[in-house]
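Page 47, continued from p. 46.
Same chain as before, 202 aa.
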Amino acid sequence: MSADEASEALAANAEQQPVEDVELEELRRVRRALSKMNQGIENMQHQMKYFNSNVSQTTQLLDLWVRVLSQTVHSQSFLLNEEWHGSSMDSARLNDLVQRDLRRQEEAERMAREAELRREHELAQAREQENKRAELARAAENAARQQQQQQQQQQPDRSRRGVLPGRRPPPGPAVRGRRGAGTRRGASSIPPGTSSRIRAPR
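Result:
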């Protein structure tokens, strides 16, 4: 390397050194600006938290104030009401209302129980009538069956009476035959040619 080249290199290095210093200084300034901005953002965050807590406290105070105003209006309405006679009368009236509601509830329960009892009684009567009808139907069926069995038993007995030999005939026809024979005998005792009429004396 010649002397000229060495001097040129030194001059270039001398020129590059201030440029690097300038860039480093600019980077430092940017860093300081960003740190200040970050600190400002953190301060703003703390301030927002404080503002939020103040807003919450204000809201609570407003709610309390609204309840106080509502209670004031309510108390004023009681004081201006001529029909209001104090808390004792209100408690007595409230007790009357409670007693009235209890009586209505008891009356409704009593009516419901009576209706349930009536329904159960009607169902019991209906079951009893149904059982009676069923018993009557069974009794009629049994009576009809017994009558049919008796008729079936009497029919073979009658057929046996008419078929078996050595038995006397029933008394009805014999009596009628005998009576007929007596009349025939009486008729044969009258001589022929004589009138059966009895002449009256003149």
